[in-house]
Amino acid sequence: MSNFFQPYKFLFLILLAFLFALAFIAVTKGIDQATSSNKYCMSCHIHSHAENSWLQASHHNNKSGVVVHCVDCHLPPKNQIDYWPEKIKAGSRDFYSYWFMDNDKVNWNEKSLLEHAKKHVFNNSCINCHANLFPLHLSKEGDKAHFYYKHNQDKLDCINCHLNVGHGGEQKHKANYSFLQSNNKKKVFTEAASISDFSNFTEQITNTSVSFDMITIPESKEQNITPFFIGKTEVSWDEYKAFLGDTESEGRVTNNTQEMDAITGATPPFGDPSQAWGMGKKPAITMTWHAANTYCKWLSQKTGKIYRLPSAKEWEYASGTNRNDEFFFGSNGSDYKNRNLILDLFKKSNDKINKYVIWKKNSKGKTALPEDVLPNRFGIVNMLGNVREFCQDTIKINNKPEHILKGGSFKSTINELLLSHKDHTQHDVWMITDPQIPKSIWWYSDCNDVGFRIICEWSPTNTNNSTK
After folding, report:
1. pLDDT at position 258 over 60
2. Which of 34, 167, 404, 411 could disulfide-link 53, Cβ–Cβ 3.0 to 4.6 Å?
3. Is the peptide bond before 438 cis (omega within 30 degrees of 0)?
4. pLDDT at position 172
């Protein structure tokens, strides 16, 4: 019998290999189908937010009746070579998370933010379905935005503008004109605060119901710093919305007069600058340095005082940090850095920082209210963390002027909270998604953790004029 197969051994091996390949393809296809259903995906991602938001989003709830499934967005197209490597990677990650992580402790809202979502959505999958970026029904603004994308595909992802199509409502990337309108229903303050000595005071913005606290910072002859007032908190949405409502426009031209109309109003932002985290006393975010500086000019005119952004030296002094410590609450960065497993068994972790700072480990991916932390020795809150704060100082980066940032934000690690950390604006990088020509000078489209704190100058020899 063996002699019979001997002449056909090569053909037999080819047939065997062919049958094995068919079996392998069949099994692989069966595994792929079984692990590609929405039900299978939801069995691992056991959080109601994913499924409920998908059911409400335009990829499921739309006029055409076409349902876009989990794998259509969260894996490359099946005809591409990276489909299986990405599927195995995603499956391994999900398997580990399902069995070894506490799903109840995962902040799913944070995971839905752009910086996280970009890791799990593939541009090729978007283009695979939306091959025609210029359909007849597309608006004029949409045409401009897609034209901008076509010429910047190396810098942009589809979800930069369409973050909510997979898991979200009907939010669209368009100008939010209502955001500029003031919410003040009753006008309370008819005049600004009047001060006659160097002590803490509460400023009042005229013709609004908005007020905020200013804290005294004494002089430092050693550092050549004259006394000044500084905001107890970062400028809040209440304060910033008063500015937006008072100067509402679509970009009036600044002139050289000192009339109120000389202050150019901000153009409408795209989407919701507050990121749906709430406004009120929460810090205002996503405005450009130019917008923050313009706010200071506006506030100076409204109050008759001299308001401005702090210098980096003034900001560091106001942080209240002693020479022997890296943090104002008497700790050093090494107290909070991740240690190895053996040391963690014998040394209890230090959580003192969480009483004073909103940072990466306790922020849950968003800004917080002032009352969530304790003040420094001057009585100022959120000098570290929550939002990075603009300073007056400029620095040249690649021959382009940028502005110094201080304090770190809710996204910051320990090293990024240190006074020695070098941080600055990245204007071009933070404006990549903005499709407008020219781009907005008022709102960053790709940065949601910057804000600012204001300084009021103190002139004891001229209290009646400069501070009244």
Report:
1. no
2. 167
3. yes
4. 58
Torsion-angle region of residue 376: left (phi > 0), alpha (psi -120 to 50) or beta? beta
- Helix, strand or coil for residue 414? helix
Between residues 461 and 106, which one has the greater pLDDT?
A: 106
Alpha-carbon distance 436 to 433, whole Å? 9
Segment holding 231, helix H or strand E: strand 228-231
Q: What total of structural domains would you count in the chain?
A: 3
Give the C-alpha separation, 326 to 328, whole Å. Answer: 7
Query: Cα(88)–Cα(102) distance, rounded to whole angstroms?
Result: 22
Nearest to 156 by CA among 445, 438, 448: 445
Residues 228 and 169 both lie in one domain: no
Q: SS3 of 204, please?
A: strand
As a whole number of angstroms, the distance between CA 444 and CA 431 comes to 6
Tell me, yes or no, whether 214 and 349 share the same domain.
Answer: yes
Global pTM? Answer: 0.81
How far, in Å, CA of 309 to CA of 363, rounded?
25
Task: Tell me the angle at which helices 289-303 and 237-246 cross, rounded to the nearest 10 degrees.
Answer: 80
Considering the domain architecture, whether residues 396 and 300 belong to the same structural domain is answered as yes
**Among 43-47, 240-244, 388-392, whose mean pLDDT is lowest?**
43-47
> Are both 247 and 373 inside the same structural domain?
yes
217 lies in the same domain as 71: no
Cβ-based neighbours of 210, under 8 Å, separated by 6 or more: 184, 189, 204, 238, 239, 242
Residue 252 has what pLDDT? Answer: 44
Angle (CA) 278-281-285 rounded to 5° is 65
> Within 13 A of 425's CA, how many CA atoms are on the CB side?
28
40 plus 169 within the same structural domain: yes
Q: Which two tokens stand for residue 432?
A: 């990549």
453 C-beta neighbours (distance < 10 Å), count: 25
CA separation for the pair 174, 433 (Å, rounded): 12
Same domain, 318 and 386: yes
Assigned domain for 186 exists? no
CA 289/CA 306 separation, integer angstroms:
18
Q: Provide, rounded to the nearest whole percent, the portion of the chain with pLDDT above 70.
A: 85
The more confident residue out of 100 and 461 is 100
| CB neighbourhood size of 368 (10 A) | 21
Q: How far apart are alpha carbons 233 and 215 in whole angstroms?
A: 10
Distance CA 452, CA 294 (A): 12
Contacts of 208-213 spanning 24+ positions with Cβ under 8 A: 208/182, 208/184, 208/242, 208/246, 209/184, 210/184, 210/238, 210/239, 210/242, 212/236, 212/239
Residue 256, pLDDT above cutoff 50: no
